[in-house]
Amino acid sequence: MLENIFEWRGQQEHEIVFVFAAWFADPAAYEIAEQRIRDNVSEWTRVIWRPADAVSPPVYPDGVLDLVRRARWW
pTM of the prediction? Predict the structure, then answer.
């Protein structure tokens, strides 16, 4: 879990980020480069898979990547 306080569109915002370990039952799901999800009723967001050792694109918020790298994966 990570607390994040940040500026967005001129306002201070706050979020709590939960990081979970999970695996796909079907390995073919890892081959899907990009997905679109709905953040709200009228807007789509692009979601991509990114290896933990990749340098681009960046991972937000700061500290999430450190949590992933330190996690114990059973």
Answer: 0.56
